[in-house]
Amino acid sequence: MSDSKLAGQFFDAAIGLLERVRDEESSNIAAAGAAIADTVAAGGRLFAFGAGHSSLAAQDVVYRAGGLALMNLMAIPGTVGVDVMPATLGSALERVDGLAGAVLDSSPATAGDVLVIISLSGRNALPVEMALNARALGLKVIGVTSVAYADGTRSRHTSGGFLRDHCDIVLDSKIAIGDAELTLDGIEAPFAPASTVVTSALMQAMMAAAAEQLVARGIEPPLLRSGNVDGGHEWNGRVMTEYRDRIFYRQ
To answer: Membrane-spanning regions, if any (predicted)?
Structure first.
């Protein structure tokens, strides 16, 4: 069987996007890492939020081997993934006004904490309102989004703004509107989305920058180890005990 031409084209597209965000977003990634390091050093808490497939990149930095133990998922039931029925419910909830405010008010997030909000389009009510309300509460907001949507689509929030308009720091994933990298004669719709690959890479790069900043300040980053290596469970138990007041996924 010969190699797939389209599979190779997808890898080329994804690699090209990764190279772009590495080169063009380096200063923003460093700024986001510094903000996270500032919060960790000051005794604050870290949260990540994403709805639908954007939640995948948020989950990727929570309770993750090699990741900061302090990153918590800001979860909204029905919006985290396709495990709800119908799966379209998550998309509908992203357009509901008032939902983000209710979630933030009942969450442990408080002034001085960091909230990373991931939304590819950044146009729906939920991520925009989440950013607005978080900043009003005194949180520092890092947005991970595709700025192309703000330039080429209309906002669905009453303010007319996008996620990028209400963040302290913005990381642009460079994903084109529609999130599909490939086309082919005979296939009606474009296909092969790369947003998960690129957004997850941005998140991990940001966390690496945070670890680098912490070490530069003489602070040991509270990292988790894999539970599948010898001593991993014991290591993680010590970290979680030391930082238990800032870890909420165990409660």
So the answer is: none
Residue pLDDT, tens place only, 182-214: 999 999 999 999 999 999 999 999 999 999 999
Confirm if 161 and 155 have CB atoms less than 8 A apart. yes
Distances (CA, A) of 194 to 119, 174, 176, 181, 198: 14, 10, 10, 7, 6
| CB 82 within 8 Å of CB 16 | no
The CA angle 183-188-193, to the nearest 5 degrees, is 45
pTM exceeding 0.70: yes
- pLDDT at 60 exceeding the cut of 70: yes
DSSP the chain: -PPPHHHHHHHHHHHHHHHHHHHHSHHHHHHHHHHHHHHHHTT--EEEEE-TTHHHHHHTTSS-TTSBTTEEE---TTTS-TTSSSTTHHHHHTT-TTHHHHHHHTSS--TT-EEEEE-SS--SHHHHHHHHHHHHTT-EEEEEE-HHHHHHS---STT---GGGG-SEEEE--PPTT---B--TT-SS-B---HHHHHHHHHHHHHHHHHHHHHHTT----B---TTSTTHHHHHHHHHHHTGGG--TT-
Which residues pair with residue 114 across a beta bridge? 46, 140
Position 46 confidence tier, pLDDT thresholds 50, 70, 90: very high
pLDDT value, residue 210? 98
How many Å apart are CA 96 and CA 79, to the nearest integer? 11
